Amino acid sequence: MIIVSNEKCPRCSSTNLNQGVCLICAYPTTGDEEIPIPYLTEFKNRFEKIDKSKEPTRTKRLSTLMTDMEQIYSIPILKSGSGTVNPQVMNLYKKVSKARSFEFEEV
Fold this sequence. Notes:
By secondary structure, the chain is mainly α. It has one domain. It has 3 helices and 3 strands. A 3-stranded antiparallel sheet has the order 1-2-3, with no helix packed on it. Strand 2 and strand 3 form a beta hairpin. Helix 1 runs parallel beside helix 3 (87-99).
């Protein structure tokens, strides 16, 4: 459920907030406490499962994971706009990106 409120996210100015988390950039909007980021645990679990796969399927699935993260967290394709994305999200996104392999045997 998306809650539109008068409160704005300090990072992206969105009013789409849910339980103190911005649904646009996944930035915590209340206090200093650790707030769960929507879907981040699921994406981490997917990454760990995919990382055990064999190439070339592994890299294809990692690319799909990156696309899913881009859509959920509004991650820009160019580095210049990554300042509005939660740092925990960007760390996982970069980890997934670096895990891809573009050197695999052709079948």
